[in-house]
Structure of Zinc-type alcohol dehydrogenase-like protein:
Amino acid sequence: MTTMKAIGLHRYLPIEDVESLIDLHIEKPNPTGRDLLVKVQAISVNPVDVKVRSPKGKTEAAPRVLGWDVAGIVETVGPHVSLFKPGDEVYYAGSITRAGGNSEFHLVDERIAGHKPKTLDFAQAAALPLTAITAWEGLFDRLGISHNRDLNDGKSILIIGAAGGVGSIATQLASEAGLTVIGTASRPDSAQWARSFGAHHTINHHSAFLPQLQTLGFASVDYIFCLNQTEQHWSNMAEAIAPQGKICSIVEMSSPIDLTLLKNKSVTFVWELMFTRAMYETADMEEQHRLLNVIAERIDNGVLRTTIAKRLSPINAANLREAHQIVETGSMIGKIVLERFE
């Protein structure tokens, strides 16, 4: 049996516990079907990692490996692969229903992987996949925003949590699509970060939205993309959204909300989960391959920028625990990336 290094868990513990994420040697997998076997060069940490790892009364007999942002090099391919070949540099978020990418080698379905941006190193690329897919699907697939700038003329979007990982990409994509972007941020550094990535205005999400929007000259907004605490912002969103507007959220609710608040305005509410296509192997699963390639092209053309904010090296349990602690604070700006196994 050929083994590889990985970081995983047997028990779901507070991140301060050294057993919460541990260094492992596990069996190196082999690709079948449409799978790529990727030699992992860099990984990024997202709130979903923290959520899955969070304390719960459950034990894993076999170690569980997390991680849903990878950049690496295709080592070998399954017999039905047609989109990639060994040696290709790739980046992707993977599937929540399979082993994660916090390992030296990782299997991913080619339909949800993209060619890595040529102008970025592996760490810069690893910061992008999960957030780029989430932002793209949220804006264009769920909210139905047009790619045609002319059709978006005069339209506005409020992005709640604009300085975070998804917000940093969504702000760029929405601005590029011709929307007026208002981002929420609660600190001077996060507000500056949001503006540097294309937000035309910023407001504070700890205060009522509508009065701040009115001060900026907006009676309402056409779209809202909620990336933070959905139920906490629910009444503010209902008040700020335009009649026949659309709201998309990526954050599940821990308590019921009143959908009736949206009725008089005939407002659409929709969810975005970037794992849906891979989880259910939908007929359009390959759309994630396509959109990652488009993102890479726009990165290489200088239209979009990576959102990496912090690097740690090497990839090991101690550094991964540090990354989880930082993300767990909820105040992370941009993305944190680990690079290189040793």
Notes: The domain at 132-271 is CATH 3.40.50.720 (Rossmann fold). The chain has a mean pLDDT of 97. The chain has two domains: 3-128+278-339, 132-271.
